[in-house]
Amino acid sequence: MIMKVKTIVPLLFSMFLINNCLIAGDVDKKMPQYFFVGTYTDSGSEGIYSFSLNPLTGKLTDHGLAAKSNNPSFLALTSDGKFLLAVHETKGENGSSMGYIESFSVINDNNRLISLSKVSSGGAHPCYVSVNHEGYVLSANYTGGSVALFRLDNLGKLTQALDLQQHYGSGPNKSRQAEPHVHSAFFEPGSDRIFVPDLGIDKVAVYHIDKVGSKLPKAAVPEIIMPAGSGPRHLAFHPTIRVVYVANELTSSVSVISLNKDGSFTTVETVSALPGGYNKSNTCADIHISKDGRFLYASNRGLNSIAIFSVDPKSGRIVQIGQESTKGEMPRNFTLSPGEDFLLVANQNSQNIVSFRRNVKTGKLLYSDQIKAFKPVCLLFRK
Fold it and tell me: What CATH number does residue 177 fall under?
């Protein structure tokens, strides 16, 4: 009898834990998934806003202003989710000729942000900010044509710029490429290299972080030469193979780049992000790949769509398999939800955010919901 009790009690306890874990998991799936929205503050916006996605229905909800900020067009979160970084995409505040980077503390209880520090970005119109797990921060200064390195301390405060790399040159598109235009800056996963697409000079500059000197020296192979007039804008790293995908703004295309073991690069192919026969004005903006590496997405402004690509698991080559209307005008940034069962798009000119349910097997998108938002540019889910 004693042996039976000793056997039954642990079994019941285990069942209790399993059931409670399952219930907890189900509850988590029903909890709203909060995200921040970066905006341009020239049409009623006051800064950064808080929204949420219902992960069961795709319904979007507006939770109001999270923090006042000037043109916080792009956002980034630290790996622990405690601090948020935002650019001030300007060419001057209070007499300065530079833009700014601002850091905030994320307040979990009410989805609000508290400003902690603000420093010069090192150039005019910073349009992108990124941060790695060590607290290094990169600012891409579009009009300034430069990339700057910062450090975020444990209290969420930014240093002044530790290093600044100024780009030089031009491209064949006289109206868009008269000078360098650094559009983004990415930390390569599992590496100390940094990839910096420059729309103005048709290059992706490659640096690495000198942690001792807090500098950005050039990598052994310092650049990826892109097709003339292509205007590289954003990129996405494949999660399992050594391939990076570059969204070319001016030619509305995606370049597949192999990251070779010796540190060099090979352009495998460049594929149009437009449907066959489309000949109207268009520019590509953002690009993302699913965590399983099977599907790639890119936003088209003009056609106002999300281009959907399937990805070859061995070579990384891509094939366009569809286009989905963004239900709005001028889609900028878009993002996948934490579970990647939804894709959300920020339509800047029509001032709406749209959610699509994503079929994880086919990669295709199905409209779910939309909501008004002031000049939305960047969508960033909380961690």
Answer: 2.130.10.10
Q: Residue 95 has what pLDDT?
A: 65
Q: What is the distance between the terminal CA atoms of the chain, rounded to a whole angstrom?
A: 50
Specify if 230 maps to a domain. Answer: no
Q: Is residue 199 in a domain?
A: yes
Q: Given a cut of 60, is residue 10 above it in pLDDT?
A: no
Three-state SS string across the chain, please? CHHHHHHHHHHHHHHHHHHHHHHHHHHHHHCCEEEEEEECCCCCCCEEEEEEECCCCCCEEEEEEEEECCCCCCEEECCCCCEEEEEECCCCCCCCCCCEEEEEEEECCCCEEEEEEEEECCCCCEEEEEECCCCEEEEEECCCCEEEEEEECCCCCECCCCEEEECCCCCCCCCCCCCCCECCCEECCCCCEEEEEECCCCEEEEEECECCCCECCEEEEEEEECCCCCCEEEEEECCCCCEEEEEECCCCEEEEEEECCCCCEEEEEEEECCCCCCCCCCEEEEEEECCCCCEEEEEEECCCEEEEEEECCCCCCEEEEEEEECCCCCEEEEEECCCCCEEEEEECCCCEEEEEEECCCCCCEEEEEEEECCCEEEEEECC
Residue 158, in any domain of the structure:
yes
Tens digit of each residue's pLDDT (9 = 90 or more) over 331-340:
999 999 999 9
Domain count of the fold of the chain: 1
Give pLDDT, residue 28: 58
Per the structure, the complete domain to which residue 203 belongs is given by 77-225
Q: Is residue 60 part of a domain?
A: no
Minimum mean pLDDT range among 30-34, 159-163, 192-196: 30-34
